[in-house]
Every structure is written in structure tokens, then in C-alpha cells.
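Help needed: design a sequence for this.
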């Protein structure tokens, strides 16, 4: 009985630690995704959507390897007042905010 109780206690501790680590990782990702700062001049690059392009694929072309793409995806959606389904169409022109990483 005591061994079973100790075993359950270990499982619970492991679960709690895993939950804390998951929460910390999620919070870190949120900070990274929102760590973009827009320059004061409010610059935009105008891009014509190609066949098969998505907001994600366009943002991927505009970011560097060490940058988090999610912040730019959100900014593109907001800058172009895209609806919740985030559909864009070939031939459409969209604004891409010119961003720099926060320091």
C-alpha cells in the first residue's frame, strides 16, 4: 500500500513538473511572437500574391532564420484587415509591414 502511494506521488510530481515546463515554454513562445517592433515611419512593402501563396508563406520570405514568423503573420493580417479565414488570392496586393526585432 505504501509503495503504491509513493508511486502515485511520483507520478503526480512528474505531471506537475511537466505542466509547469509546458506553461513556461508557452509563455516564452508568446513573448517571442510579440517581440516585434514597428519602425516609427510605418513603412510597408507592397507584395502581389502569387498562385498558391499564403500569408504564412509570404511572411516566411520576409523573415530571417533567427526571427519568429508568427509576429509578422499577425501584423500582415492586421495591416490588410484580413478576415478570420485569412484567405488571400492570386493577383491581390497586400501590405507587408517592415519590422525590426526588438532589442
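Sure. Designed sequence:
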Amino acid at each position: 500500500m505504501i509503495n503504491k502511494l509513493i508511486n502515485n506521488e511520483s507520478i503526480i510530481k512528474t505531471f506537475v513538473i511537466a505542466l509547469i515546463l509546458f506553461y513556461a515554454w508557452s509563455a516564452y513562445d508568446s513573448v517571442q511572437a510579440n517581440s516585434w517592433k514597428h519602425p516609427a515611419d510605418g513603412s510597408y512593402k507592397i507584395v502581389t500574391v502569387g498562385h498558391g501563396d499564403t500569408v504564412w508563406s509570404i511572411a516566411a520570405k520576409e523573415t530571417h532564420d533567427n526571427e519568429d514568423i508568427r509576429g509578422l503573420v499577425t501584423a500582415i493580417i492586421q495591416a490588410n484587415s484580413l478576415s478570420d479565414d485569412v484567405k488571400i488570392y492570386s493577383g491581390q496586393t497586400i501590405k507587408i509591414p517592415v519590422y525590426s526585432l526588438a532589442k
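The first strand starts at residue 36 and ends at 37.
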